[in-house]
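Re: How this chain folds, sequence and tokenised backbone to follow
How to read it: Take the token row as a discrete description of the fold.
Start of record: The labelled sequence and token lines come straight after this line.
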Amino acid sequence: MGKTTVRARSVTAVALLASCAALLGAGAPQGAALPPAAPARPAQAPLQEQAGNDCDVYRSVPPSSEDGPAVKAIKAKRSLVIGVDQNSFRWGSRNPNTGQIEGFDIDLARAIGAAVMGDPDKVTLKAVPTAERVKFVQEGRVDLIVRTMTITCDRLQQVAFSKPYFTTSQRVVVPRSSPAKTIDEAVDGKTVCAATSSSAEDELKARPKVGKIVSVENHLDCLVLMQLGKVDATMTDDGLAASQAAQDQTVRLVDGEVRPAVMGIAMLKNSTDLTARVNQVLADYHASGAWRAGYDRWLKPYMLNDAEHYWPTQR
């Protein structure tokens, strides 16, 4: 198992994670009732390519198993550093019982690391805040980001992305005491929380009727603020929203979703051969059934749709 580098979190967030210890791990104890699944996802139009003649969020370099200069340089330093989350329940979170970071994205990160390096002990997982994902890549502080990162036209100008590996959208979480039933009711005239530099923050900024936007380093901080009554709602990726509702029974999802998108793995724009290697690992990971197994283990209890609904159609 690879070495893990972590960044200190706030006492409040740590206390919240500790209080959820019984929920963390591969699943609920046998016979225990699972938290309710997310409300039904309404039908949505297929993801449209984002604005710009040259912007295609599905486009990436062809898969390859060859070692080019970027991969050789990583192997020479004997460690592949992968930026991950440690605060997203079921995607990438620290299990207080074992001290290990675990989740759907963590399994994928380790699979990529083992395939590229040939040795899981040569993989370092590094906790990266949402707002600093692009910066960490550009400054060489990580080689890859595997952290529920939406591919956008703006980000494609700053970093390279793999082929998409998960379909997502933006949804809203509110306290169970809230009367809101739809996204508009939950955010119009309200104080709404989102992670800085996230797609959720972009969506809220595009909504003129939102009362106030509170931007935080990581989306889990929004859950804490909502519990404290400091914000009325949280907007985040649908998978993260579902995990928040599963993590804390005092909050729920409202109906509706916006901004359909896909997630990808980010790396330096000039690391073409590394991008090709990652794309090959993604193709093999899905074809082998490992992607489906990860979904079933970590996400299935909290997501309404079958796994293949979330696997993007690779163009």
